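Subject: Predicted fold for Diaminopimelate decarboxylase, 442 residues

User T.R. writes:
Posting the sequence so we have a shared reference for the thread.
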Amino acid sequence: MYLHGTSKINAKGHLEIGGCDTVELKQQFGTPLYIVDEALVRQRCREYMDAFRASGLSFQVAYASKAFCVMAMCRLAEEEGLSLDVVSEGELFTALQAGFPAQRIHFHGNNKTLDELEMAMSAGIGCFVADNFTELHMLQALAAEKGTKVNVLLRVTPGVEAHTHEYISTGQTDSKFGFDIGNGSASEAVELASRSLNLNLLGVHSHIGSQIFETEGFQLAVERVAAFAMQVKEKLNVVFKVVNLGGGFGIRYTEEDTPLKVADYVRAITDAVKEHFSDYPELPEIWVEPGRSIVGDAGTTLYTVGTSKDIPGVRKYVAVDGGMTDNPRPALYDSKYEAMLANRAHDENEETVSIAGKCCESGDMLIWDVELPKVNSGDLLAVACTGAYNYAMASNYNRIRRPAVVFAQDGHSDLVVKRESLQDLIACDVIPERISKQPSLK
Ligand SMILES: *Cc1c(COP(=O)(O)O)cnc(C)c1O
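User M.O. replies:
I've generated the structure tokens; pasting them so everyone works from the same file.
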């Protein structure tokens, strides 16, 4: 398993993260346990901030909180000077409760409800990223009713789709998100928003995909957005102050993944902006929204090995005390992960096994085929790179309790999310009056 950030093997042959021995973390917090390498998260935040500072452009780096949205993480992003993206009232509430400054919060999503818009407007968030005409009309009406004016970015689909190594240049983008540049609806949205007395149109937003390892997709998106900006300036006399280029910067889950350095992604974007906006009245402020690349490789999940099943000549299943409930990504997207025995890190690999979860679902697998030492019941299995879209996507399927999350740094381990209790699992359950609450005496 590749050792990210501060992860290392200590003298006892145990995996150590943030100066904390994972065997001790298990004793203290139990398993499954999400461990976040706090120093690595901070390092990633700083890589983005430093790269933008070096560009000389005005900028905001907004952490896409959907990747891992808990109060401590919102605080950390705030401390590092980042802005924050939210996509629901729940994420907004979490950020506000954590004391994240409302002016630095941007609200995304293709179906924000009236209640959500109202909550965000009352809180005084910095920007709404309007996705469609329904939302524009709702925003306009709500802001008028409140006698206020709100900042708006328009999400546009520039006709670029990027996935890892390929980007696809599509003409008419078939996406549930945003206003299409190609068919004129983006231009119509600019006209509508710029004429509104209650909307302050800051500019446009584009997000081209996720887990991207190349710069071409971003460069092409900048080129298309710049062409669009020129066009609306000429046609409508509207000048964008902000161009948001979204997230999607890739990370290394396994050796197949070859991400660029944060600074290289940022330089490609800022250079493209300087080039394609050179004839624009003023270089726009550039916003980006990394999620995965802020927290992904800083997360490790620790499991205790339970049962195993050897099918001679076929495969050996080794089951852990979690699974698709704490990491649904392998089941959802066939995502690949690396793992190691955290309590016997020096032992030689001896067998190829497949790591199964404990859910009643054959697809509940974490890793197909991983090389490990001879695995015994009670061993500690660490799965790397689980910081993004793991806790955030965790479920209570099979009424499995969601794990605790700890931040580890410099030998300190601090709980940032408690393990759910059995009581938590039934906290929202109600038995209606007409169903007897006592065991029937038969
Ligand atoms: C998901 C998303 C992001 C973050 O994507 P990552 O791949 O986690 O960097 C940023 N912006 C928007 C609009 C998104 O939907």
